[in-house]
Amino acid sequence: MFIGRFERVGYKKSYRYCRPTLLLTHVALAETGELITDHLWLNYTKGFLDLGELLTGDLLRFNGRVASYVKGYFGTSQKLDYKVERPSQVALQAKIEGPRRLLPDTVTKFGRQALIGYIMERERAFYEASCRPIDPYYIEQYRVWLTNHVMKNAQNYDIVLQKQLTGASKKH
Question: 104 lies in a domain?
């Protein structure tokens, strides 16, 4: 078992589509507390999604398989690195207090696209500062999902979310 501090969400782009990811920092063995790595990118799998929106500082506990891979591009300097794959038994060890939004279900293609839009919207400042693309298509999929799943249901409506969307739409 591992334990790590949630830092932020992200995505990785393949030649066909984007895949959601999340960044954990201070990853350690859960039993001993021995630090394994200062950071770890994982696929944003169903186990993590089932926890709902994660906030920076949440401590996550999970199981996974350690595997090696070659880091770098072919033709440039490469090195052997390690990753944790197939995360399972994902649980919140310690939760940061604060408002949390519902997240799209990734069972459908639309849900997966909406989740990428959520990630692009949430991490907009980072992507803009690092000149990484923010695709309006994915942002629109997230906004459509919000309209259909969150804003119509008063008990799930979040004032913070409304302010974010109002501020983001004024920028465009």
Answer: no
